[in-house]
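Thread: "does anyone have the structure for this chain?"

Original post by V.I.:
We have the sequence but no experimental structure in hand. Need at least a predicted one for the grant figures.
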Amino acid sequence: MKEGDIIKKASICIFILLVLTTLEPSRVVFSKNLISPLTCEDKLRTMEPIVPKTIYEYQLLGDRDMNKFKGNLEPISSVLKDGIDIAFVSVYKDLDFQRPAYAPQWHSSYWRWSYMPVNLANQQHKLFTYSGGLSVWFDLPNELVLPGKLSNASPINKKVFTTIYPYVVRLIVFDFNIISIKYYKNQICVIGEPLRKGLTVADIDIKNIPDSQKLIQLITPDRYELDYSILY
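Reply from O.Q.:
Generated one for you, tokens below.
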């Protein structure tokens, strides 16, 4: 083997080791070998921080951090009065859907979705969005415990959620019946009726909406905000 090849391989190995040592150990845990299962200590690291500490929602869910929202916000009454209607397509709707408080895939034996601070933070919200990425869609249904038959296909366009047609946003809404959606300036309001249960997955096309940061709000007809999410 040539000296240059040896140096190149050594550099790659050092790089990999540096990456692994900088990963948050509470989120990425490997068993001591490929045959033995995770130890109890390893499982705990997939479920909670290594040391007790306070964690705020904005540290876990970037789309909920209003400090990152740079646009101006109008009163909800202005959005409902002056906003433009956005057509939506219901991909899935079951108003009798009961949202699980816990799911098998959150068990420590799966480790990928077992980090409880994230699961607890997600459980506090009713509105979620998806705008592309196969790896994102792989995680999202497991994090939110969506029905297994739900895919990321959309009737709006066959190339949806790809670089070919990146203009569709999927709204995933729990305990709420969507009636209409309005857009005004930097805001998209999803208007409907609060419920004690239910799941609606709806796609909207934002091709004709200016490409900028938007605040999506879950709104009652009486103009009360139930939840929100920042769309980047």
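V.I.: this helps a lot. Residues 62-231 form one domain.
O.Q.: and The chain has two domains: 3-60, 62-231.
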